[in-house]
Amino acid sequence: MTMTSHHGSDRDRARRQPTRTEYPRRRPDQTQPKSSGSGQNSTAKGVWAKIKAVLDTPQLNYKVILSVTLMLTAIGLTMVLSSSMVTARTPDTSVWSVFLNQALYVIIGLAVAWLALRLRADTIKAISPWLLGLALFLQVALFIPGVGVGAEIGSHSWIRFGSFGIQPSELSKVALAVWGAAEISSKTRQSDEFRPVLGRFLAVGTAMVLLVLLQKDLGMMLTVGIVLMALFFFSGVSARLIALVGGVIALLATGATIAQAYRSDRITTWKDTLFLNFREGSTSGPSYQSYQGLLSLSDGSLTGTGLGQSRAKWYYLPEAKNDFIFAIIGEELGWVGASIVVVLFAVLGWFGIRTALAQADPFLSMLSATLTLGIVVQALYNISYVVGLMPMTGIQLPLISAGGTSMVITLGSLGLLANCARHEPKAISSMQHEGRSLFDRMFLLPEPLPYRAGEERRIERRNTTQRYGRPVTRRESTAGTAGQDVRRERDRNRRAQQRLPHRDRVPDYDGTNTWHRQEPLPQRRSRSSENRYSPRRK
């Protein structure tokens, strides 16, 4: 009995004890070298993760658009001064005259951009018909005898006010973009009213293109046509209709080219420049400007001759401060300086399209994409015909070429684009939760309002972690200005939430942007109880 119980207890004790199996440790093979592929992959993934985190930063599009605009404007002022010092010197003027005029236009343009930054999205929609009406009125006024000037230079497209002049076709680009985006985005493609809206927009756009064509300004007609095509493309219409509109614009441009002998000579010049087929005597005729532009670019080499050391501006290169200012950039700053300008325009285009894709408001999305495409394609065409890839049309380089109306309208357009970037949902949420930037507070920019509509378009990105909550709705004002009430209520809510424990801070997005205490957490009962976190008895 005793022995049996003893062996039985040992057997039970052995059964209760878990068995542990000892595995020999594997030593790494010293003969085979370690693979470095996994380490390189992890490093590349880490770098890409950091880049992605930077690109997902709220307000990044807004800050980059403003920074690139200011940098291109500064480069433009510097190059206008450098390229115009020789030709600006006359018995009545100084070498600074062209630069000072351009600086004045830049100041006016920055003021217009500041006003554009302060506008609400609904305000931009409301003024779009008036802006279009003003542009059409100025276009028609050009044909009144004694009003329009510029026929002596080949295009009847200027209205002179004393020593200043405006070019209505520059305003027509922005007016068509704003009004077209407001009209097309007001109706969905599935709506029965979308086709009449599209027909009305097509009629107005065609009238705008024909008015510019009657002024004999082929370059400006192409820029207005680019805006028209961009709006058609981003509206989501069929490719057949887009091809039809593009074909009509191409036919009009071809007819305008054939009708004027000097434009036909530009086509011949373009073919000679493209294949470097400069025959004897061709460099002194219609090909002279293109030939001198290529010589300027070749003189610049890699790093350039130095700022202000251009030889082409000494009456060799016509329009050195306007159409062919990129050739002066390539000569004085070399391939490096010219590449910086191209990269800045590419960055502007990329972040402009990012702004369009990040919008919740269809109007702001279409407007930002159209403005971006209009500015970047114009810059691309100017650079292309300077280097000999496209025929010359007289299109200026935005923000860099000397010009009053072009500078003011372009800065105003970029102000609208930056305003669209401020109204991104993630940017609005970041401003409301973390505060606005120093630039906004210094220039008294109002807090942007989130987009609210019956059918709100949701922007969802795969594999993206949202760090910021959705923007709060508009808060009603009880006294003072809306901005003061918003800041006062935000500070009061912030102090209220700081007095609460962290677990009780729950945001309420029901339209009041208030913070409230959540229901008390269930109290813990005895450890031996099965339902350890049962609700508290009332």
TrEMBL record:
Spell out the residue ranges making up region: Disordered: 1-43, 455-538
- Compositionally biased region (Polar residues): 30-43
Q: Where in the cell is it found?
A: Membrane
Report what the protein is called.
Probable peptidoglycan glycosyltransferase FtsW
User: Where are the annotated coiled coils located?
Assistant: none
User: Sorted alphabetically, which Pfam families does this protein's record hold?
Assistant: FTSW_RODA_SPOVE
Protein's organism: Corynebacterium urealyticum (strain ATCC 43042 / DSM 7109)
Q: Which reaction does it catalyse?
A: [GlcNAc-(1->4)-Mur2Ac(oyl-L-Ala-gamma-D-Glu-L-Lys-D-Ala-D-Ala)](n)-di-trans,octa-cis-undecaprenyl diphosphate + beta-D-GlcNAc-(1->4)-Mur2Ac(oyl-L-Ala-gamma-D-Glu-L-Lys-D-Ala-D-Ala)-di-trans,octa-cis-undecaprenyl diphosphate = [GlcNAc-(1->4)-Mur2Ac(oyl-L-Ala-gamma-D-Glu-L-Lys-D-Ala-D-Ala)](n+1)-di-trans,octa-cis-undecaprenyl diphosphate + di-trans,octa-cis-undecaprenyl diphosphate + H(+)
The record's comment on protein family reads: Belongs to the SEDS family. FtsW subfamily.
Q: Name one GO molecular function term.
A: lipid-linked peptidoglycan transporter activity
